[in-house]
## 1
Amino acid sequence: SEPQPAIAAFAPRKFVTRRGPDPKQERSARTRLLVLTAASELFAEQGFRHTSVKDVADRMKMTKGAVYFHYPSKEALAVAVVEEHYARWPALLEEVLTEGYGPLETAEQMLARAAVSFRDDIVVQAGARLQIERPHIDAELPTPYIDWTELLASLLVAARDEGQVREGVSPEAAARSLVSAFFGAQHISDVLRGRADVVERWTETSELLFHAIRA
Ligand SMILES: CCC[C@@H]1OCC(CO)=C1C(=O)O
């Protein structure tokens, strides 16, 4: 079937490059990514409060100035890490949509691949921990869960319109349940196993929930 129209919540942002690469800009972009990765490692390992800008600089073997050049504060670093966490999902949606699944399988694939990211991607792991610690972060962080809920609800409405959803199942309620279950599964896996078994744990829950949702 035709790939689903990209869902507004994760509509892939199209960047149009107007000119060729600029070495100075490239070097700066590379350093910015190194700062984000070092900060993500520390935020994921020891949390926001116990991480200092100096820790990030030391982890990169650079000066604090080099970090401050890119991010004016530890709070700005946390915002950038959480924003980078959420930036993963539009890219993932583009990848899944090119594979031409129907809407229900697109939802399954998105969550299955997100579980792999929660296992392997330090920026995703750091973003998740920062969202838990948001009451202690004096900065405007994106509101958690709503984009995933919107994406899954849109996909499940499309699936219902194609007769793929069990009679009586509300797409919106199912979307909220999938988000709650995924959040819980990855959190429990993190606490008990450092997310070593998050893919297996999510697979088990996903099979049960999509069995209940599918017509
Ligand atoms: C896909 C379920 C929701 C997802 O799980 C962990 C987390 C981090 O806050 C999420 C979010 O904010 O969307």
Note: The radius of gyration is 19 Å.
## 2
Amino acid sequence: MTAGDGSLPAGSDPIATPAVPQAGLLNIANVLTVVRLLLVPFFLWLLFTDGTWWRIAALVVFGVASFTDRVDGQLARSRNLVTDFGKIADPIADKALTGSALVGLSLLGDLWWWVTIVILVREIGITLLRFVVIRYGVIAASRGGKLKTMLQVFAIGFYVMPGPIDLLRWVTMGAAVIVTVVTGLDYVLKAWRLWVDGRAGRTADGR
Ligand SMILES: O=P(O)(O)OC[C@H](O)CO
């Protein structure tokens, strides 16, 4: 979505009124989203390299990439830099980062596969569901969805972090899985309501 269409209000002086700034594709929020995507293969390379210091390096890269997720959203909203590209690329970049980390950890034997599969099914399923109901409305990220992302990031961080912190790993990942499933079901309910209301609206219009 652009910041505006750049047109001037009726009757306004085109010389005295400054042009409405438009959010270009190449803005700081989108650049951070792309940086996050580019960090994914670098993170995986570090994760699969044997040794404690490589693990710490992977943790740092994962932390930086996750931090860009917080910053780009805030910048986009506060500086009116929301674009269609950002709306689509931002959640994809989030899910590429957490999804690849989960698959990487399971491939290394550090994380149970069922955890990775449950989270991936929810994330991919809800992303597809959003596209299916888009003609009836947008299912925006809920507070629960944001909490879910935060819990996933901390849980993955603890799994990447070297050291005897298994209890911390299990507790945070357990919480992440529960919130992931519950928010997924909540989105399914929202999608169902949108679908039913949308179809009812279309029938009432006679279309
Ligand atoms: O649960 P979702 O799919 O709405 O994702 C939430 C976002 O990652 C929050 O930034």
Note: DSSP finds six helices and no strands in the chain.
